[in-house]
UniProtKB/TrEMBL annotation, chain A:
It is found in: Endoplasmic reticulum membrane. Pathway: Glycolipid biosynthesis; glycosylphosphatidylinositol-anchor biosynthesis. This is Phosphatidylinositol glycan anchor biosynthesis class U protein. GO terms for cellular component: GPI-anchor transamidase complex. GO terms for biological process: attachment of GPI anchor to protein; GPI anchor biosynthetic process. Keywords: Endoplasmic reticulum, GPI-anchor biosynthesis, Membrane, Signal, Transmembrane, Transmembrane helix. It comes from Gadus morhua. Residues 1-17 form the signal peptide. The chain crosses the membrane at residues 126-148, 160-181, 187-206, 218-244, 250-271, 278-299, 344-366, 378-400. The gene is pigu.
UniProtKB/TrEMBL annotation, chain B:
PANTHER family: GLYCOSYLPHOSPHATIDYLINOSITOL ANCHOR ATTACHMENT 1 PROTEIN (PTHR13304). GO terms for biological process: attachment of GPI anchor to protein; GPI anchor biosynthetic process. It comes from the Eukaryota. Keywords: Membrane, Transmembrane, Transmembrane helix. This is Glycosylphosphatidylinositol anchor attachment 1. GO terms for cellular component: GPI-anchor transamidase complex. The chain crosses the membrane at residues 304-323, 343-368, 428-461, 468-490, 524-546. Pfam families: Gaa1.
Length: 428, 547
């Protein structure tokens, strides 16, 4: 296990180092699919330059990162490339994801009808999952271009990975701290609070029942740790820079979406043609859309919080206000963990083809719009829409496969109707 | 004898005779009241071109700006005439200067007019445009422009070899198959009709009997000429380089053939003056009409809505084949743990198809980089000139790629399974579909021609078809031979058919032009063919010889 992982790390670092040295690095760092106004390296450099001149880095609406990031890069400026590669490597150390699976196996072993044995994964199969996750993340072209462009979403991904790792290990304090850090960076990981809580409750065998006092006690404890760390981080930022400027510049920017540079998200085109009168209404609708799915999904998946984490990360990556391909690579890295759902997936071919075609068409239509002048923003937004639809289809397909597997686990694999003929499952 | 025997002095004399008369042009333009500036440029060619026979191309562009009398200097129009040595285009500069004198005395100009005389045709034009727009995409060395005129709204390029013309030919195809807005072509044609000058496209005379068979075939021939010209991705006139900067431009060639009715230079001048008055009156850039069209004649066009579905149906064949392979791969119960087509190959089982992919792409990279890099080596060992060395190396690497499948199979152990080739074919078919789709969006003709030859190949190749027959068909349909047939077809369509020998020499010069265009102007045909289309074809070749 160690040798293939080490080999993988060497290959990944070599690819990134090689690409850093070519002229492609400059080209990639300007692509709108890879960097957004929130996490472009160019803007970090701007902010650092302003900080060196003793001006607030948030003046001029250029810099939208949190103060901790700017201080981090203040010290690591010369080692920027290594930092980003290190963030990628740290992510891949998420090999303890397999731990939860073993636990689940132990819990479920006694509840399953005999014919479902083929649905359960054997430990040998699960042995290679961490390596596959690491490979999916490190060798994913999206991650590579994101790292080469020095986009800070690599750091965000590393923090979310640490959060997941600490949740899996069961340490509530660390989990709350990393979640606070992730929420502090961009608001959307707030929704990951619920699955983390559900997982920790499940681990401690506390049933999720609103009438039980133990449930409330633990929930309040966790929320207190989370909110406390968040407050500490915000106050620390205040003391770092000496003003509350960062609140509107970071959180106001994420929530009110003033910058309409095209990206792979859904916001820019809508808000470019929106009348001011309706802007607030649609802003609320779009932002609520990101947080809205937490409640129904948690109710449905309250016994499977890890899958809920995956779904939440995917939904954040699709619906957030300034997505980039780095956010995509985060949830795509987790796909090998649900390898066993492969047999129930219905649309994987279509989704893969569409994602591949869209990734190729993004630069082509950008060129036709901006440089050749033959196309216009509608063409580019069409590809953005297609890309988002393909991702939504992927996520919902995995959800369906997951539910179907659970159904089979409780009701048997080869379903029969009352008269003995073979039954078909229909999702209502 | 003394003067001509010394090669250096001979070269200097010829240089003096064929170089552009910069000082005379500057004086003449100044006498006509323009603001005159010059720009020097130099470019090191990757290998000496046949016409130039030397590595370094140096030249000077001369341009004069006619300032609009009462307008702010925010917009400009360009009239350019290339200054070539010899008798080619020897009248264009004269008309340009005549027009400059006439334009100077008019008061209705709202935009600045730039009269440009560029040396070495496209190289000079590229240097001027890069200097004007402060970009440097091709590594040329030029002196900065001293005078500018605002953002260029439209440009026309003149090519006149005689002072009387029988017809004017409109050339629209630009770099990478980009076309100006159809409005520009319609404008020119409508005005020619009004003045009474015959206007043609692709050098073919227009016919009125378009509903008879011969009329229809004439229109198809004209359209095929346009398709072939667009597919070659080269700029077919000096205007071709303007299009990249979002400037609508067209080239006007004067043709003097054997017809009774001749138009003299005054009428041509009136025509151009009228065109410039029309362009002067524009409030915005021409963008309302189609940018993607094919023209069977100047009065008819085929828009993208008509020709794209044809291409879409071809791409559909590939997608259906991919779906069929997917279903075949998923259906047997004892299948391997493949994740099919993800962005990244996941399980080690799919690693076996990585080898053909890597080897094909490495061959493509070799085809792209080696010909130019190894010309020195080739010239030392073989009695060929540099241009021939580059072209013949390219052909040699192309043919050497055919020998690959027989070697890669010995390197890889235990990969000869039914599953293996199906996975490779699935990947190759999807790769081809995405590649053709992207190519067709940027340069439709190139994408369509490649689709016509590669899609039947991709759909039907399996290891189980008769090997020798399929190998011959595959080689005939390969991109290299498609180019050869296209060259012969092009000559047929232009009504100047060539013999096999001449055709072959023309083919070699086309390859060298392609490589040169890529190095000089950024044409995408050569890198596309070498780095993407050829490896894709090699993947299918690999599948054919799968054991």
């Amino acid at each position: 296990m160690a040798a293939p992982l080490a080999l993988l790390l060497i290959v990944a670092v070599t690819i990134r180092a090689a690409l850093f040295r070519t002229s492609l690095a400059n080209l990639i760092s300007e692509r709108v699919e890879v960097v957004s106004p929130l996490n472009a390296w160019k803007r970090v450099v701007e902010g650092l330059a302003l900080l060196d001149l003793d001006i607030s880095p948030y003046s001029g609406d250029v810099f939208h990162e949190t103060p901790m990031v700017i201080y981090l890069f203040h010290f690591l400026m010369d080692y920027a490339e290594i930092t980003f590669m290190g963030a990628g490597v740290k992510f891949s150390s998420l090999h303890l994801v397999s731990q939860f699976r073993k636990q689940k196996f132990a819990l479920e072993a006694d509840r399953i009808p005999m014919d479902c044995l083929e649905l359960i994964r054997s430990p040998t199969e699960m042995y290679y999952i961490p390596l596959k996750v690491a490979m999916f993340y490190l060798l994913n072209p999206f991650t590579i271009v994101s790292c080469v462009a020095k986009c800070t979403c690599g750091l965000n991904n590393a923090v979310i990975a640490l959060f997941i790792l600490s949740t899996m290990r069961g340490s509530a304090l660390l989990s709350a701290i990393f979640l606070a850090l992730a929420t502090y960076q961009s608001i959307y990981p707030l929704t990951l609070c619920v699955p983390a809580l559900l997982y920790l409750l499940q681990r401690l065998y506390i049933p999720v029942n609103v009438r039980r006092s133990s449930f409330w006690f633990y929930t309040l404890q966790y929320l207190f740790m989370f909110l406390g760390s968040l407050l500490v981080l915000i106050c620390l930022s205040f003391f770092l820079l000496g003003s509350w400027d960062f609140l509107p510049a970071v959180y106001g920017f994420i929530l009110s979406v003033p910058d309409l540079t095209p990206n792979i998200g859904l916001f820019w085109y809508f808000f470019a043609e929106m009348f001011d009168h309706f802007r607030l209404f649609f802003l609320c609708v779009f932002q609520i859309n990101v947080f809205f799915y937490t409640l129904p999904l948690s109710i449905k998946l309250k016994e499977h919080p890890v899958f809920l984490i995956f779904m939440q990360i995917a939904l954040i990556a699709i619906f957030k206000s300034y997505p980039t391909v780095g956010d995509l690579s985060l949830y795509m890295a987790f796909l090998p963990v649900w390898n066993h759902l492969y047999r129930f997936l219905r649309n994987i071919f279509l989704v893969s083809c569409v994602l591949l075609a869209c990734s190729a068409l993004f630069p082509v239509l950008w060129h036709l719009w901006i440089y050749a002048g033959s196309a216009n923003s509608n063409f580019y937004y069409a590809i953005t829409l297609l890309f988002s639809v393909a991702q939504i289809l992927l996520v919902s397909d995995y959800f369906y496969a997951f539910l179907r597997r659970e159904h089979h686990l409780t009701n048997g694999l080869y379903l029969k109707k009352k008269d003995g003929s073979e039954a078909t499952l229909v999702l209502k | 004898m003394g003067l001509l025997s010394d090669p250096n002095r001979r070269r200097a004399l010829i240089g003096m005779l064929t170089r552009m008369p910069v000082d005379w042009l500057v004086r003449t333009m100044q006498a006509r009241g323009l603001e005159v500036y010059t720009q020097r440029f130099s470019r090191k060619l990757p290998f000496p071109d046949e016409d130039k026979e030397r590595y370094m191309v140096k030249g000077t562009n001369v341009y004069g700006i006619l300032r609009a009398p009462r307008a702010p200097r925010t917009e400009a129009l360009v009239l350019s005439a290339p200054c070539s040595p010899g008798n080619e285009n020897n009248q264009a500069v004269g008309i340009l200067l005549g027009l400059a004198q006439y334009f100077r005395s008019q008061i209705y100009w709202a935009k600045d007019i730039i009269f440009l005389v560029n040396e070495h045709d496209l190289i000079g034009m590229q240097a001027w445009l890069e200097g004007y727009h402060h970009t440097n995409t091709t590594g040329m060395d030029w002196s900065p422009l001293q005078g500018r005129g605002g953002s260029i709204q439209a440009a026309l390029s003149l090519e006149l070899s005689s002072d009387v013309v029988t017809s004017l030919d409109l050339v629209l195809e630009g770099l990478n198959g980009q076309l100006p807005n159809l409005d520009l072509a319609n404008l020119f044609y409508a005005f020619c009709q009004k003045i009474g000058v015959l206007c043609t496209t692709q050098g073919k005379l227009p016919r009125n009997d378009w509903d008879t068979t011969s009329g229809y075939s004439h229109a198809v021939q004209t359209m095929m000429l346009m398709v072939l010209k667009q597919a070659s991705s080269r700029p077919w006139g000096d205007h071709g380089l303007f299009l990249r900067y979002h400037i609508e431009a067209a080239s006007i060639k004067g043709v003097n053939s054997f017809r009774p009715y001749k138009t003299d230079a005054t009428t041509v001048g009136r025509l151009l003056e009228g065109m410039y008055r029309k362009l002067n009156n524009l409030l915005e850039r021409l963008h309302q009409s189609y940018f993607f069209y094919l023209m069977p004649s100047l009065t008819r066009f085929v828009s993208i809505g008509y020709y794209m579905p044809a291409f879409g149906l071809l791409a559909l064949i590939l997608l259906l084949r991919a779906l069929d392979l997917w279903v075949q791969l998923s259906s047997p119960p004892t299948r391997t743990t493949e994740d099919g087509v993800e962005v990244v190959p996941a399980s080690p089982g799919v690693l076996s198809i990585l080898t053909p992919l890597v080897i094909s792409h490495l061959t493509g990279v070799a085809l792209y980089t080696l010909p130019v890099l190894s010309q020195e080596l080739a010239v030392e060992h073989f009695p060929v000139s540099e241009t021939e060395a580059v072209v013949l190396t390219a052909i040699a690497i192309y043919t050497a790629g055919l020998a690959l499948p027989h070697n890669t199979h010995r390197l890889l152990a235990g990969e000869g399974t039914e599953q293996g080739w199906k996975v490779l074919k699935l990947v190759a078919v999807l790769y081809l579909a995405v590649l053709l789709g992207c190519t067709a969006l940027i340069n439709f003709s190139l994408g369509f021609i490649l689709a016509l030859t590669l899609v039947p190949l991709a759909a039907f190749i399996t290891p189980h078809v008769p090997k020798t027959l399929s190998a011959v068909v595959m080689v005939i349909l390969s991109p290299g031979l498609t180019l050869l047939f296209a060259v012969f077809f092009f000559q047929e369509l232009q009504e100047t058919p060539v013999t096999l020998q001449e055709g072959w020499m023309l083919y070699l010069s086309v390859i060298s032009q392609g490589i040169l265009d890529h190095a000089l102007y950024g044409s995408l045909l050569y890198p596309l063919a070498a780095l993407l289309v050829y490896p894709c074809w090699l993947l299918f070749w690999n599948i054919l010889f799968w054991k």
